[in-house]
Batch of 3 targets.
Target 1
Amino acid sequence: MTVMNMVGAELFDAGKKGRGLRAAKELNTGEVVFDRYKVCHSCFRHQAKLHRCAQCKFAHYCDRTCHTACWDEHKQECRAIKKLGKVPSDRVQ
């Protein structure tokens, strides 16, 4: 599945780990493939206004439908972020 507005990236099923995003083409050094702060965490659509998860304040969603659809995958991350009190660096996620 090609992610909307992200040429060269695709979603894949990572089994028990949930979904993954991987490059679908060779990338140049420094090329941005995915900017998590500008897309819905569920459907990966770019939106002008996203709604934050009320619990962890990290994940962003188009609407309640996307939040609900992603909850099974997000709930562990959500609990961990609340427990830590901050979002871990990209290297930890």
Note: The longest strand covers residues 9-13.
Target 2
Amino acid sequence: MVSKVLITGASVAGNSCAWWLGRAGFDVTVVERAPTFRDGGQNVDVRGVGRTVLRAMGLEDAALAAGTGEEGTAWIAEDGRIAAQFLTADTGANGPTAEMEILRGDLARLLYDAARDHVRYRFGDHVTAIEDRADGAAVTFTGGATERFDAVIVAEGVGSATRELIFPGENRPRFMNLSMAYFTIPRRADDDRLWRWYHATGGRSVSLRPDRHGTTRAMLAVQKPPSGEQDWAVARQKAWLRETFADAGWQAPRVLAAMETTEDFYFDVLRQVRMPRWSTGRVVLCGDAAWCVTPMGGVGTTLAVTGARVLAGELIRAADLSAAFDGYERQLRPMVENAQAIPGFAARMANPRSRLGIHALHAALAVASRPAVMAVTGALSGGGDDHAPDLSRYDGAVPVAKAPRHGLSPLAALGVVALTLGASAVLGRRNAPDRSHPGIRRWYRRLDKPGFTPPDAAFGAVWPALETGLAIGGYRLLRKPPGAARNAAVGLWLANSAMIGGWTELFFRRKRLNASTVASGAMVASGAALAATAAKVDRPAAALSVPFVAWVAFATVLADRIRRDNPDRAG
């Protein structure tokens, strides 16, 4: 019986496998070569059956909320105008921009956060040897220690070292004649929510894509046969890109300038992984290590989460490893082979070498984006579900500990909101400069105030509206599934709610004008952090916090002016 499992690689496929097996009661260890969790990576999407898997995990809504916010794809002409575009609002889930566009690191982090309570993670370590024995796989790690496992899942990348250790020479890579560099660049005011794709002669292209982290994701691509560029030093790769894109036009100069200082430069020569088998003995491959389809296939991440579901399902239901691995490959290989069946001319067609070819591509895309043919173009960009495995096969293999689909219950969330804002309101009422507090009222009226001070009635009208927005936003955040971003947003919401009442204590009761001005500025910073963090979890909650930030910013200016105009009372 399989009970103790090692997974190598803590990205999408590895973390997905860990989620399913950990919740099914397996003893799971995940080992990752990187010293800490890797949050980097470019845009990926999840479609069709992959969405079904995330939904079953209770993570679909969280993945949508953590998306990049990309609203469509636009092809840019030489003069900078849009030659053709597909908007997600028109194409739905299966356009060039999927409904679920998310950064690789954000999706991997979401899966990691959901899995780690049920599995062990070990970073900064990797496998150096695996010996298949009668009682299990003896796995030796980089520190020299050897441990026994019933099964080993290799869920690494296209260049998996563990795969080459166990399946030496078996991979027959198919090169796609396309070299690509990915990295993050500073965001500019004119960067919008579209994936902007510009072609230059010579098979070159420049892409800019949005994210939710205040930066822009850049990609440089060159259509050419491989010359070993993936093995060059980074300095040589960058020098080659500078020379290749020197006269490319559009925003190439901006991208090349930012490339020099970026911290997440990644270069690759696209190639598919073609393995005649995915398992041997107690070792099995999953994800890119088994079948990398390259970004040209469009379903790599969908395959990663789907493959993990199938592999885990077979391990849960099968009587022995051999049957589980055979069932896994039998169920999934048709989908993989369909995804890898990319025509040899695809890279050249998508990256024309001449101006005439670029004009022809743009003209074809403009026609394809018309409503009459939109359904066809959407289908061509779909998730390959015609070849997807039958996941109902695993309906009986239910994890013993399901991930929460929601955060707090409606009643509990309402209770937290009521207690938090209620306590703040009580404190504010205790310090209000009204007739019930004549001393505070008299002191406040004697302060020298600037001409832009709102009338007292305005404060009474504005604060209830702001606190209502905070209440609704807090409720929405508390109802979201727990996770790093959601928990951070809830913490900031609690802090801001507490600071409202705390500020009235400083200003009105203690009459500390200096301290209250500093506190007001801190509320602006924490309010802005709340809006930014909440946007990763729930966009309406983030929007509801914006009026609060704007009002507190105004209040900070007012408090500072009152402080300066009343130096003898600043305190």
Note: Confidence is low (pLDDT under 50) at residues 376-383, 400-405.
Target 3
Amino acid sequence: MSNHIKIVRIKAVNNALKELRDQVVFVGGSTISLYADRPVLEVRPTDDIDVIIELLNYRTSTAGRTP
């Protein structure tokens, strides 16, 4: 898969995340070739796009607050 196609797919996922888009990091096989500083024969193809996001539970997010 070409870098152009990977970028288009990552942008589509980014746009679908709407208000969360500034809180995610794209990782995994879909991004590896974008970070490579020299070309390799072939990066193993992948069909998914992995995302990391920080989540808080209610107890953690309200710690220290008074009701």
Note: The chain has one domain: 3-61.
